[in-house]
Amino acid sequence: MGTTKQHLVTIKGIKDGLVFLLDDQCEFTALIQDLQYKLEHTHQNILTGPIMHVDIKLGARSASDEQKEEILQILKQKGNLLIRSIESDEPEADTSNENEMKIMTGVVRSGQVLHHVGNLLFLGDVNPGGIIHCTGDIYIMGSLRGMAHAGFEGNENAIISASYFSPTQLRIADVISRPPDEWEIKESNMEFAYLQEGQMQIDKISNISRFRKDTHIYKGV
Question: What span, in angstroms and rounded, lies between the C-alpha atoms of 113 and 17?
Answer without folding.
Answer: 14
